[in-house]
Amino acid sequence: MESVDSNFPVRHRKFSLEIKGNKTEIVICSYEDHILVIATQIGAMGTILHARKEEGMSVEPTFSVSVIFGKRDEPMQIATARRLIDHISSFVPSKPLVLSLGLKDHSSETLKEIVAAVIENRLW
């Protein structure tokens, strides 16, 4: 199930999918200055991360990812934010990402499926 609401002041897309037996709801919002992605299997927001592309002279892009709220000892969640900001910044380099992951299953397979679903349904 997917919906895109063009009347809401912020462009957004909401959809759900089944990942390893867990209903996973995803909301993607494209604000003027940020991208917000919420992925939940628990019906609420979970760990919230902020990711952005670092401005610099380096040939290879560098990214900053930090946990705003929630579990700080989940390297796979940081890797998920890193993968998403890497993709987003190739289209809109100046838009940071705020990512909320409220998951029952924190496996790498689940996180990879979330990344793939977000990229497939992107608003950038």
Summarize the structure.
The protein is of the alpha+beta class and 124 residues long. It contains two helices and seven strands; from the N terminus they run ββββββαβα.
Biggest β-sheet: strands ordered side by side in the sheet = 1-2-3-4-7-5-6
- Derived from helix and strand composition plus strand pairing, the structural class reads alpha+beta
SS field, number of helical segments: 2
- What's the total count of β strands? 7
Helix content: 10-25%
Strand proportion: 35-45%
Query: Major sheet: size, sense and barrel closure?
Result: 7 strands, mixed
Radius of gyration: 14 Å
Spell out the helices and strands N to C: EEEEEEHEH
Name the poorly predicted regions.
none
Taken from the alpha-carbon principal axes, the silhouette is: globular
Structural account:
With 124 residues, the protein is an alpha+beta fold. Helix content is 23%, strand content 40%. The protein has two helices and seven strands. The protein has helices at residues 75-89, 108-120, and strands at residues 2-4, 11-19, 22-30, 35-40, 47-54, 62-69, 97-102. The chain has a seven-stranded mixed β-sheet. A hairpin with a 2-residue loop joins β2 and β3 (22-30). α1 runs parallel beside α2. The mean pLDDT is 91.
Task: Give the secondary structure arrangement, pairings included.
Blueprint: E1 2-4, E2 11-19, E3 22-30, E4 35-40, E5 47-54, E6 62-69, H1 75-89, E7 97-102, H2 108-120
Parallel strand pairs: 4-7
Antiparallel strand pairs: 1-2, 2-3, 3-4, 5-6, 5-7
Helix pairs in contact: 1-2
